[in-house]
Amino acid sequence: MKMRGFSASATAAGVRKKDRLDLGLIYSDVPAVTAGVFTTNLVKAAPLIIDMERLKQGVSQAILVNSGCANACGGQAGRKAALKTGALAAKALKIPENLVQLASTGVIGEPLNVAAFEKAMPELVASLSPDGFAAVAQAMMTTDTRPKMVERSIDVGGATVNFLGLAKGSGMIMPNMATMLAFVVTDARIGFPELHRALTAGVSHTFNRITVDGDSSTNDMVLVMANGLAKNPWIDDQTPNHLAAFEAALTAVLRDLALMIVADGEGASKFITIRVSGAKEADDAHRIARTVANSNLVKTAFFGEDANWGRILAAMGRSGVRFDPEQVDSAFNGVTLVKNGLAVGGDAEKSASQALREKEITVDITLPDGKANDEVYTCDLSIDYVKINADYRS
Amino acid sequence: MKMRGFSASATAAGVRKKDRLDLGLIYSDVPAVTAGVFTTNLVKAAPLIIDMERLKQGVSQAILVNSGCANACGGQAGRKAALKTGALAAKALKIPENLVQLASTGVIGEPLNVAAFEKAMPELVASLSPDGFAAVAQAMMTTDTRPKMVERSIDVGGATVNFLGLAKGSGMIMPNMATMLAFVVTDARIGFPELHRALTAGVSHTFNRITVDGDSSTNDMVLVMANGLAKNPWIDDQTPNHLAAFEAALTAVLRDLALMIVADGEGASKFITIRVSGAKEADDAHRIARTVANSNLVKTAFFGEDANWGRILAAMGRSGVRFDPEQVDSAFNGVTLVKNGLAVGGDAEKSASQALREKEITVDITLPDGKANDEVYTCDLSIDYVKINADYRS
Q1: Contact with chain A for residue B49, Cβ under 8 A
Q2: Using the beta-carbon criterion (under 8 Å), do B389 and A297 form an inter-chain contact?
Q3: CATH number for region A6-263
Q4: pLDDT score of B392
């Protein structure tokens, strides 16, 4: 891939701990059209509030991201600290302050170590390179066990348009606090309205399918920067084919990143797809899938490789959706366990338990009420999830 | 305590496993005014549907309860099985079938072993005794580690009125599936409207404070039987003092049982009270308390004895309640950790971590928005919770 005009770098700044990559920088040679979506949590970390203000202009040139500290719940001091780190980056990059986007992840309520940023900034800027993105993906990690990076290219009117995406996310079991950061850079030439629309639509089919309405961290964000250096024909409503290709590629990048987050969920041993079909309304399908995907009892059963379909029906029953329990079918990895709300019996449960030994499990829930479908992605709830979250700060 | 006119018994019927008490019977010498509240889950177990129909008459004379099988998601066969067990009890007790209330707890989706009921019924009825309640409390247990029983007496117009309550509940971490059963018998003389009102009000301040709206099992129920044999003056709106005393006593019994369930939560090592004060509306206080109490990340932090107040603020932020994060105070067992949304610093966190080594923890969350208060009771999320629920059926 030959991405044009973006570079990146990372360093071990010592934001909270020594000797691990914890500060990353992404830079575009020219100001880039930038769209973002941010947590709906009422309690927003300082960097997000600044970013949301700055993105009203729809343009940015750099993203500065740190792990080790969320810079949330720090009041005016937290805001000042965030502004200061942005100013340091702007000065070193020789760009206006308001073109710097800020992102933090880590412990809530601790002050940001601005001195660490100050000391690291010269080297961070000096080492910017087109090959620096993998290091940024590492610097963003908290309880992630592996960095998450995706590349993709498409043709737009004869020009190659490239995408590179980075994400961090430490768990989807309780996604509200497992801060999720994702950054996508593309050399596509596209206007802000189209970029924003593509991002919003893409997120709704990807990151919003691994998260729950309102279950959002103080720091969650997805940013996409498009610097136009691919010099493709403008992507807009006049070129519906180009727009569709761009949206599909962006959504694919977001989906890959989202699924990587689930697969690396805190303590996860299984990747689980809850697929609902035949619901009356799209929202019904989503609510059922989401309620089942978030049930601790369903998740612990998967960890135990127990084909406990009763817990799935019970979770459905408290989803708030009206349905007839005696018309529900359900299958685990294609093995039908429940037909018209009743256990099919025979060897089905044994076969289903076999299926649950797989790493990837798809639960199909079929209703006879309509044509609406949805999928939600999750993972199991394991002993390691509890260990990780009981020990997170130690 | 000299409870009049109630007896009970339990036996090891072999409903699912051998040699453990799993079938219990409660009997009143005379038909008793009976009120009940039942799960709001759309998927209701067969015995509940039958009970709800029968309780339209507001009277019953016996409760037959089993563990080992929830008799949920069993369709018409499940309903027939439940009716058959009720008929067996009615015949042996020589009372009409529709005076028998049925309750089941255990695995969902497996058929009820009616033969075990049939075989056990003669002995179960023959061994009814005023001292049999403790055995019933044992027979109701699933993953409970101890039986739950409460006694209480009050004076009503010169007559002693007695209450005896039993409950089972295996976990409040995800209360929706940890079936909660509670039965209270009293020899009070009281009419159905007053009894029903007292039960509903009492439950809203007790069991509904350890559970979440809509988070209910297929089998949850609370029943209260009042047989009138205390011969107290009628408790009704003409005697507001008596009514208040009755309501207070019933609520106290329900609260004791509810708190016993939390304290015996699956894998619980801590009993946690989330207390919100100064909210604008009662519903705001409840939603904040409930959201914090249900956060897996808050619960795992308590298991880890980590004074991670940032997770509490973040959970508050996704509760849907509007508040100013920079006006929140919070204390753990009286140690103020957060003042105006900021860490107080100094030794506070160390003192709070000390406080978290206690078995009972009260988290105070104080807002400046009004006079509404609420409390929700919960427990920590431990490694044992996962173990118990991954292995529940094995």
Answers
A1: no
A2: yes
A3: 3.60.70.12
A4: 56
